[in-house]
## 1
Amino acid sequence: MRFSFLSIRDPELIKRIGAATALEVRATGIPYTFAPCIAVCRDPRWGRCFESYSEDPKIVRAMTEIIPGLQGDVPAGSQKGVPYVSGK
């Protein structure tokens, strides 16, 4: 599969990548994953700057779709502020 610069900024693709990663990690028996940093990095002196998606808050906001990809979609009517992991 060939990716262009724009396709890698596709929230639906990021969500599917998160879901595939979750399946693979779950198969290993590891109960957690290290995901990219959902932060807006504007100072490269910050140690985790290389992990952020962009300096642009709009891009970072769109890339948060990796979270429901990794954790599963929160069911309708779930209490806000309560952690949710699909299948738990």
## 2
Amino acid sequence: MADNRYFEDQPYEVENPFNIMITLSPFDIDLSTTILMPKTLLEANLFPFMDISFLVELLQVRNKPKMIEVFDIDTKITTFLTMKEDGNNFKFHGRKWNNILERKHYKAGDTHAFWWDLHHTRLNFKHVA
């Protein structure tokens, strides 16, 4: 893996067609440790940028979650969540997700942008509405 300490964090770009816009549902909020993202959205806007070996394991070994790095661009805090396929969605799960919700006082209806940071090989996110 390349040394990424010389690269700036990839900022949120409003016009990026690969942004994954997720509006939090009550399921994502109420003491939740899970956020759901539609499979079709991830297949179009995330998977093309991810490492192929990660995707093969994620998609071919059913019910075996994969760890993914998730980075809050505003607070510069990294969280690790597990990701696994669940029907027409992917579940991102971890106790730290609830910590993020509580710390930032997010509520159902809030919209977050998620985007892949190629230099840091992680999923960045930002509260946008």
## 3
Amino acid sequence: MSLTSILSAEAIDNAVKDCQAPDSFSYKKFFQLCGLSSKTPQEVKNVFQILDEDNSGYIEESELKYFLQRFVPGARTLTEAETKSFISAADDDNDGRIGAEEFQTMVLS
């Protein structure tokens, strides 16, 4: 499964282009622009599984840094500040990583 089987390539490109400048990433705006926030809970879970590169059931800080590159190869990495803010916004149980349920809640709320 690929991200473009769930989201349109054009929407993904627009979302990534919108946050090209360092420290301009907003997860809410990104999820809206790429169309993820209007998908079903199952589709959001499928996207989570694609982003969870090591299949640990969590997106760790090391994976989150390359979040944009999972959507578009060659996109920039997230800054440390963006990565930490992304994690703290979703990490309801304060374990320093984002679980599938936490990701789903973040995207769909």
